[in-house]
UniProtKB/TrEMBL annotation:
<feature type="domain" description="Jacalin-type lectin">
    <location>
        <begin position="3"/>
        <end position="152"/>
    </location>
</feature>
<dbReference type="GO" id="GO:0030246">
    <property type="term" value="F:carbohydrate binding"/>
</dbReference>
<protein>
    <recommendedName>
        <fullName>Jacalin-type lectin domain-containing protein</fullName>
    </recommendedName>
</protein>
<comment type="similarity">
    <text>Belongs to the jacalin lectin family.</text>
</comment>
<dbReference type="InterPro" id="IPR001229">
    <property type="entry name" value="Jacalin-like_lectin_dom"/>
</dbReference>
<dbReference type="Pfam" id="PF01419">
    <property type="entry name" value="Jacalin"/>
</dbReference>
<keyword id="KW-0430">Lectin</keyword>
<dbReference type="InterPro" id="IPR036404">
    <property type="entry name" value="Jacalin-like_lectin_dom_sf"/>
</dbReference>
């Protein structure tokens, strides 16, 4: 995977994983109100759809599948929040932005910085996250779909 590694951010616990599948085509999120429990990714590689391993815990109160309109839709942003839960720092919400819209938030974004300590939490969730980023080929970008307004400059007559 060509790209620049960004992160990880969050806590320092849990198991390290480094997914380098291919061209991202989907994301599967398991979560509840307080925690993002797991993430799984779907890729196109050599013309085939491939599923990654499932990363995080096994709990699943809610489950959402994000299926990108591949190849014309791609991630442009990821945001989320972490909070200390018992002795761990866990991902409590995540939201994905694409060139065509946004998905989420999954979980509840932190707004006050308070520590959550639900009695049923056993700390099996996503403790940190990072990503590989790469340039977007200009052939993929269509200005009519872009949220950025482009103005034509007038030629000055001498």
């Amino acid at each position: 995977m060509d790209g620049i590694k960004v992160g990880p951010v969050g806590g320092r616990g849990g198991s390290y994983w480094d997914e380098k599948g291919g061209e991202l085509a989907g994301i599967f999120v398991s979560y509840d109100e307080d925690t993002v429990y797991s993430l799984q990714f779907m890729y196109y590689k050599s013309g085939k759809l491939i599923m990654s391993d499932k990363y995080g815990g096994r709990q699943c109160e809610s489950y959402s599948a994000i299926v990108l309109d591949y190849p014309s839709e791609f991630l442009t942003s990821i945001s989320g929040s972490f909070e200390r839960v018992k002795k761990s720092i866990l991902l409590t919400s995540i939201q994905f932005g694409t060139n065509k819209g946004s998905y989420g938030p999954f979980g509840t974004p932190s707004t006050d910085g308070n520590v959550k300590q639900p009695s049923t939490m056993n700390c099996n969730g996503i403790e940190s996250i990072g990503f590989y980023v790469k340039d977007i080929p200009s052939s993929v970008i269509k200005l009519k779909d872009s949220p950025v307004k482009v103005k034509k400059e007038r030629e000055e007559k001498d």
